[in-house]
Batch of 2 targets.
Target 1
Amino acid sequence: MRQIIFKSLVICMGCLGLANAQSKYKTGNAAKQPATKPATTPATAPATTQQKPATATQQKTGTSRYLNNNANANNAAANTAAATTTNDPASTVPASTANVTVRYDTTIAGAFDGKVEQSLRNNYAVERNLIKDRKPLEYDYIREDDQFWSQFVWEEIDAREKINQSFIYPGKDDNGDQRFFSILLSAIKNDSVVAFSPDNDMFRTPLTADQVNNLTAGSLDTVDVADPISGTVEKVITRRPKFSPDSVYTFRLKEQWIFDKESSRMYCRIIGIAPIAKQVVGGKSQPRTLFWVHYPDLRRTLVKFDVYNPKNFAGRMSWEELFESRFFSSYIIKSTINNPGDKYLNALIKDPLFRLLEGQNIKDKIFNYEQDLWSY
């Protein structure tokens, strides 16, 4: 009986020991949890809250929160960059362009409006002072009642012909380029000669010097020029020519032939000159009238420029003498003789050969009219 009671006491004490052990482990785990919660709670708290069934409103709120966080981050980065730029003056210029300077060149590179370089010494063996004092002779006055017969003629000068090659002579002189078109531009720029719109040949709409320069000036071009020693880069901004200088080789003349009965002779007075450029439009070369210049206004400039003479450089004449003496070759493109429709010959005659023959026929009519007035 004692043995049975002893065994029951041992069993009861064993049960109490297991219970105490389990409570000890639970207490130990509970004591350890506060040490691990601070490390895991911030990272897992958002995920725990998002794992709950969320409505549409809660989802939008969570998305906008992340967008606001990204926007705040971007604003902070922008503010930091602005602060850095403001505090550092050198940071306002990129490192690759910190030493770059920009220079504007107002001349047109390779075109007609180049700078005239003056010789520091006499470029000739003799003193050339007479050309500076030249003045054109005044025209003989023709009374309106004395013009017995009159016709208007439009002609074109093609500088590609051998007799007209002095119009495109590319030589340089103290007064600039010797091309005839460059002389026209020099007269407009330096001698206050007025250019008129190419819309018609009636000299109705004047053009400014800047408008004339824009006719030949093309798009802006930038060239980088680096100094090999200092490494500084200079950007030279200039204008490329719109067309080649050699593409202006045609010049149109408006003339009036008048027979003066008081002096019994035929006069030819040039009224205007217009340069015509060849420009490529749509893959085809088309002529374009640039502007008109009143010839009587141009005479005081032409008298100061000499014409290239391939036979004798000392026997040169002025451009004013060339036009007054008609030392050039031209062909007629329009006249007022038998032309009630006021049309050009290319609108009346399609064949270019027959147009040249008709132009020569008009010249013969003018010549024969003067000759037929005389009787022997």
Target 2
Amino acid sequence: MSDAEPTDDRLRLLIERVERLEEEKKGIADDIRDVYSEAKAVGYDAKIMRQVVRLRKMPPDDRREMETVLDLYKAALGLG
């Protein structure tokens, strides 16, 4: 049984680390939500800001390709 104890301790420590990180992640998510709320309070559109953040994360080539396809679709639907 002594062989299992170090493994059990390690498992517990790993689980506790994950729990702490999950708590930090929740705190960060709350902070991000607060920033979007602040932006909305001063007149910015949080939904559009989220899209801009998503676009900025994309590699430039992927972003250009997506914008090109989007433009094609919009033109095909007369949304030009």
